[in-house]
Amino acid sequence: MAAGGRHTTKVLRLSQDLPLVIEIVDSEDKIHQFVVAIEPIMGSALVTTEKVKVIRYGESGPSDTT
């Protein structure tokens, strides 16, 4: 039983350091504001940005003007 308890503790400890991916699609300015706002709490992090082309958004698609 004790060995099982140690194994569980190890699994829980490992789960605390799993990577986290957050994806946000917005204007470049709003992304920059978001990054500046969360920088004090980020700690060690990798932040990347890239341009995207929205092909479909929601049920109606980007070219629907109704």
Distance between the termini: 64 Å
Rounded to an integer in angstroms, the radius of gyration calculated over CA atoms is 20 Å
Mean pLDDT score: 78
The description of the largest β-sheet is: none
User: What pattern of helices and strands is seen along the backbone?
Assistant: HH
Query: How many domains would you count in the coordinates?
Result: 1
Strand content: under 5%
Global outline: flat
Structural class: mainly alpha
Report helical residue fraction.
40-55%
> What's the total count of β strands?
0
Unreliable stretches (pLDDT < 50, length at least 5) are none
> What's the helix count?
2
What does this 3D model show about the protein?
By secondary structure, the chain is mainly α. The chain has one domain (19-66). The protein has helices spanning 2-15, 28-42.
Summarize the structure.
With 66 residues, the protein is an all-alpha fold. It has helices at residues 2-15, 28-42.
Which properties best describe this structure?
mainly alpha; 66 residues; single chain
Topology, element by element:
Blueprint: H1 2-15, H2 28-42
